From TrEMBL:
This is Methionyl-tRNA formyltransferase. It is an enzyme of class 2 (transferase). Keywords: Transferase. Its EC number is 2.1.2.9. It comes from the Bacteria.
């Protein structure tokens, strides 16, 4: 069956590449890769192809990059490849009904959460920011709603204290690919009974907006810490210092000896030392360990404090300003 089954793969970022590679490793016939158009990237806005495009071209797979997959001309082009199965992973566009109904084995999606939790475009970010103890990957049949289809299989992994969104992104990309490897033979053989989601338990995880990046120091310390690591290494949490944008790349909850017992208002800098900047949150301090002042690159606090005027008593986050220091 592998030699004759015609698969179209749809995906865009690095997360999707391992799933495409697994299909090729297992000997499936991937007849087309559909991905987003090339986009400007970095400070110099260089037009850059998506990772899935690069992986597909290396494997000799034709690539289609529609601006909108819902347009009739895009649907016609997909139909020309006569897919038996469509596999998607972080494609970034909704598939129209005409495409969903095209393949005889349906359309399946590799989604980076334990559905029905965290439907949407930023499931990893939101799981970390919410302080979840675990996350995972769910393989689902695609439906017209956002990540609402029946669940085919799933795998769970713990969210460890040392994890951030970037680390989990890589872990879940690998886990999703292996889940696809294990599940696909059973699915094609008709030995899997898909399970409907409990829609009343759904949690949405929309794409991160600029205003979501700003840290609220009035929240408990663990929530601030989860916020910072949930947005690292992109788009990166931010606050303000001396009226300028101040990005927060990494942090941790300090040990009791470091935290001290000095009461202070949320956002107040308690100490500036090589190991970090101690900042008061609602119920205790957070230790910032890697930061990025406006107009400079990210750096450990040991480097930042050598040329910095930051001192105990300074207050962070007094006024939100536009985030013009977005990493490329």
């Amino acid at each position: 069956m592998k030699d004759t089954l015609r698969i179209i793969f749809m995906g865009t970022p690095d997360f999707a590449v391992p799933s495409l590679q697994v299909l090729l490793e297992e000997g499936y016939q991937v007849v087309l890769a559909v991905t987003q158009p090339d986009r400007p990237k970095g400070r110099k806005r260089v037009l850059t192809p998506p990772p899935v495009k690069e992986a597909a071209l290396r494997a000799g797979i034709p690539v289609f990059q529609p601006e909108r997959i819902r347009r009739e001309e895009a649907i016609r082009q997909v139909a020309e490849y006569k897919p038996d199965l469509i596999v998607t992973a972080a494609f970034g566009q909704f598939l129209p009904k005409a495409v969903l109904e095209m393949p005889r084995y349906g359309c399946i999606n590799v989604h980076a959460s334990l559905l029905p939790k965290y439907r949407g475009g930023a499931p990893i970010h939101h799981a970390v920011m919410a302080g979840e103890a675990e996350t995972g990957v769910t393989l689902i049949y695609m439906a017209e709603g956002m990540d609402t289809g029946d669940m085919i299989s799933r795998v769970a992994i713990p969210i460890r204290d040392e994890d951030n969104t970037g680390i989990l992104f890589d872990k879940l990309a690998r886990e999703g690919a292996e889940l696809l490897r294990r599940t696909l033979p059973e699915l094609l053989a008709g030995r899997i009974q898909a399970e409907p989601q409990k829609h009343e338990e759904a949690i949405l995880s929309p794409n991160i907006r600029r205003e979501d990046e700003f840290v609220d120091w009035n929240r408990p310390a663990r929530m601030v810490w989860n916020h910072i690591r949930g947005l690292s290494p992109w788009p990166v949490a931010s606050t303000t210092w001396n009226g300028e944008n101040f990005k927060l790349w990494a942090a941790r909850i300090p040990e009791a000896a470091q935290a001290g017992g000095t009461p202070a208002l949320p956002g107040t800098v308690l100490a500036v030392e090589d190991q970090g900047i101690l900042v008061m949150a609602q119920d205790g301090p957070v230790l910032l360990t890697e930061v990025q002042p406006a107009g400079k690159k990210a750096m450990p606090v040991s480097q930042f404090r050598m040329g910095s005027a930051m001192k105990p008593g300074d207050v962070l986050g007094q006024k939100e300003i536009p985030n013009e220091n977005k990493p490329g």
